[in-house]
Amino acid sequence: MLAAVLKDFNRLVLEDIPRPEPGLGEVVVRIKSCGVCATDYKAIKGIRRNVTFPLIPGHEPSGVVAAVGAGVTQFKEGDEVIVQPSGYCGVCANCRMGNTHYCEQSFTTGGDGPPDTRPGAFAEYMKTLAICLFHKPAKVSFDAGALTEPLSGAWKGVIHYSEMKVGDDVVVIGVGGIGLLCMMVARAAGAGRLIAIDPSEYARQNALTLGATHVIDPKKENAKQRVYEILPHGPDLVVEAAGPIGAVKLMVELLRRGTRWNVFGITTHEKFEMDGGLTHFLEARMDASFGTTPLAMQKAIRLIESGLVNPEKIISHRFALKDIDKAVEVMGQEQRNKVMILP
Q1: Which of 201, 221, 251, 299 is the most buried (most CB within 10 A)?
Q2: CA 284/CA 31 separation, integer angstroms
Q3: CB of 169 closer than 8 Å to CB of 192
Q4: pLDDT per position in the chain (343 positions), as tens?
């Protein structure tokens, strides 16, 4: 099969490698679509250093079951499926509490996080455990199915952890792919005023198209002053979906008494300061969210199937696997949104 193998930073090589064979409880999926995550791009370019080579990246796939191993009863060849990249044992204390993303035996296919990183979906075929698969509804496209994983993360952060309520005024800092999904989830959940903050005119325009009531350019405006002009009583929820430490610092500046805030986008180990006494009296509640769970995946599938959220709207580019170098190049450009690989 054809696969894109990351041999070293800035060395992504297309290779003909053996097609995987399923073992006990495993399934091989013929990949039909896979999103390119910013973490994939950071691994390829050496911005993210927690990479073990060689690696086949790609952790947002959908496809068709090509082969099943012994003991697999819920899936058969030909089934259209959505893949959760984070694998789990199902029997450790964390799994049995529903926190499968904390699993003591966790693995990831093509992503990052646990030490056990397995070949991902920038390939024609990928192997994983049957428990990581979900049946794709017939009316859901493979592209939309592939974006279930990032959408599930948005649902988990905005709804499950930060408990957004109907009518809440929400600020999303950073409206690239994941920020737009957070914004679309908030819109579907009944947000009141929905403010997108991003220095990119392209990103702000996407936000307006997909439901933002207001947009702010932090390069040209005082973001805090502008937010409080729109929301005199301040935001109910602030989601940081940008990544840079400056976005986290801005989030802290926006807090008023009772604000909920979610550290969602930053993955680098950088510091920010808080006033202890002020934090105490504000009673602002901080959440953070990473990864996904079967619950979040199932909720995201329901959002897509019901038409409440259409993640295909954030796709800006599609590339064949053989043109993955072009996809990586586009990922480094400002005027792009979600990039898809179609093996």
Answers
A1: 251
A2: 43
A3: yes
A4: 999 999 999 999 999 999 999 999 999 999 999 999 999 999 999 988 889 999 999 999 999 999 999 999 999 999 999 999 999 999 999 999 999 999 999 999 998 889 999 999 999 999 999 999 999 999 999 999 999 999 999 999 999 999 999 999 999 999 999 999 999 999 999 999 999 999 999 999 999 999 999 999 999 999 999 999 999 999 999 999 998 999 999 999 999 999 999 999 988 889 999 999 999 999 999 999 999 999 999 999 999 999 999 999 999 999 999 999 999 999 999 899 999 999 9
Task: Name the β-bridge partners of 82.
Answer: 62, 134
Q: Is residue 88 classed as helix, strand or coil in its secondary structure?
A: coil
| DSSP letters for 177-198 | HHHHHHHHHHHHTT-SSEEEE-
- Structural domains of the chain sorted by starting position, each given as residue range(s) with its CATH number in brackets: 2-150+292-342 (3.90.180.10), 163-288 (3.40.50.720)
Phi, psi for 64 (deg, rounded to 5): -125, 135
Residue 192 tokens, joined: 């009141």
H helix or E strand, kind and range, residue 331: helix 324-331
Amino acid 185 reads V
The amino acid present at 258, given as its one-letter code, is: G
Six-digit token string for 80: 């259209």
Show the tokens assigned to 136.
């794709």
Q: Which residues pair with 287 in a beta bridge?
A: 262
The answer to whether the bond into 311 is cis (omega within 30° of 0) is no
- Which 8-state DSSP code applies to residue 106? -
DSSP letter for 123, please: B
Count Cβ atoms within 10 A of the Cβ of residue 176 and give its class: 0-12 exposed, 13-18 middle, 19 or more buried.
buried
Return all residues near 73 (Cβ < 8 A) that are at least 6 apart: none
Using the structure block, give the residue that is written with the tokens 């207001």.
214
Give the pTM: 0.96
Give the count of beta carbons closer than 10 Å to the beta carbon of residue 222. 11
